[in-house]
Amino acid sequence: MAVTGRLGLLALFGALVVGLVWPSKTGILAVGGVLVLLVVVDLVLAGSVRPLAFRRSGDTSVRLGEPCEVTLVVANPGGRAVRGQLRDAWPPSAGAADRHALRVPAGERQALVTSLRPTRRGDRTAARVTVRSVGPLGVAARQGSHEVPWTVRVLPPFHSRKHLPSRLARLQQLDGRSAVLIRGQGTEFDSLREYVIGDDVRSIDWRATARAADVMVRTWRPERDRHVVLVLDTGRVSAGRVGDAPRLDAAMDAALLLAVLASRAGDRVDLLAYDRRLRAAVQGSSGASLLTSLVNAMAPIEPSLVETDARGMVAEVLQRTRRRSLVVLLTGLDAAPLEEGLFPVLSSLTARHELIVAAVADPRVAEMLTGRGDAEAVYDAAAASRTTAERQRVTERLARHGVSVVDAVPEELPPALADRYLALKAAGRL
């Protein structure tokens, strides 16, 4: 029971006056009787919360860190006005401003807008709507809760989008839409032109030269319609936090940039997320629908605190990918998991596909390397040095198997991975 409002305070003051006038047991009973009567009257006159009807509308998806709004319409079919407070409860990670003043006359409705700014990826589901209807005296209130379902899917933010224009410009050069044309194994013939100093003599077309007055060379462009398979390792290594986010989020950001770039290059892009089982898959999407499909598939994925089944992951890739493709595995470079998991099955993957391993490095390790201030800093520097050496050894061993390795901090991983893809295009290895 709550005493609120001017009428409620006046009623309570009157009851206290009665108690002062008759300071006896009879007076105390009179005060109690007056308060009970006020409460009963207030509860009777308060609008009922049970028959209220609710309807939601608004945003169903939003990028992480951006605001969105969900509208809740409250209809009052009862015979008394409902006034008081409403709480539209959401999980804390939804970042909801969930408390609203409510005043709905009988037979009318009110629209309330809940603003959200989510702080985590995934599906954020409304919990329940709780209404407190205060009586006209403000002495007491009715309260009830209603289930009004609504889900907002929080998508990966795709911060690396800012790197896309510069990589698309380089792609245009490789694709022959600019003046720069390249030559390389596995590229498509584009046209003939006259030889200029600096051209590779291996590109001379001797038959065309014999028919023309000048030496003619062939120009080439990167092949289109290649197949790129993005594989997200969602096992234990992806759960480690780098800064304020798990490694998996940085891997997703890099995968999105590469996917959009490869799609613009005319390549087909698929996605697999795997730890001990398949968590998500995107196949057959292209053009404008590709990015939508990818972010919706990635949004609900959370790291699993289990060791990844590398054998099962490779088998899934080989089963779904028959033709030679570029496989991009976004995982860690920790020696122990790779020794026991990936290395024993690596040859079966590299024999059929071009492989890039992309890993998220922790910038804190580089900072610890320079620490010499006290004994603790020296120990940290030694640990960081050992970690760096182990990652370097793993990188060298992968390179001996013909695997390209991209190891960078979260902000640098997306553009570095995109650059490696463009370098493979330029070298004719795709």
Automatic annotation (TrEMBL):
Residues 192-391 form the DUF58 domain. The chain crosses the membrane at residues 33-53. The keyword DNA damage does not apply. Pfam families: DUF58 (PF01882). Keywords: Membrane, Transmembrane, Transmembrane helix. The keyword Membrane applies. This is Putative membrane protein. It comes from Amycolatopsis camponoti. The lineage of its organism: Bacteria, Bacillati, Actinomycetota, Actinomycetes, Pseudonocardiales.
